[in-house]
Write the structure tokens for this entry.
Amino acid sequence: MCAGILRSIATRCNDLRHKAIAAAGSSEVTSFDQLAPDVLLSSQQQIAEMLARVLDVQAPNAWIIKQTQDRATHILSPRQSWIYRDWQKAIGDSMLQPLDNAQRRFEVIGYHEFEARHVAGDRWLKELEAVVSDLNFEVEDPQDFRTIQVRQILNATADLIVKLDDLKLSRRIVDRGTVMRVKDYRRTTMKKTVN
């Protein structure tokens, strides 16, 4: 099957998923697997019919869709936005400070105050640990994009460390041992990517 058709199918599946989530009408429903069972079944029926049309095959009957519903729900519920969607609201809420007797109800605090509120106790490291503690980097789950995102963050951080070391500065920002370990990490990950 050509890449264009696969992209078209993926786009249509995403559209149907997002429409079902939006139709739920609740900010609590952010993933396909959080939909009510009857809505899930109806959405999966629509997706099955779309796939049958695109592939020019007979659509599966309701019994088959019901029997494969759990697997389909898993496939259609990728976990991918571990910071952007999951934490954005919480970060935004913590940036607001209520105002008394003012025209506006809230004021946005500055970065310094935001950091001062959250640095104590390494809160962000605990949040990150909660997000990545169940990841298995040896066997990636194609439905969980967090592994890819964490690898991208690690690679970007490694690139930043090497670029800082390449700057012609009067004194070193990162110690030589760290730079060497980072360069070894980059060589190792590049070999894995190539293989």
The CA atoms of residues 63 and 69 lie 10 Å apart. The first strand starts at residue 96 and ends at 98. Residues 136-195 form one domain.
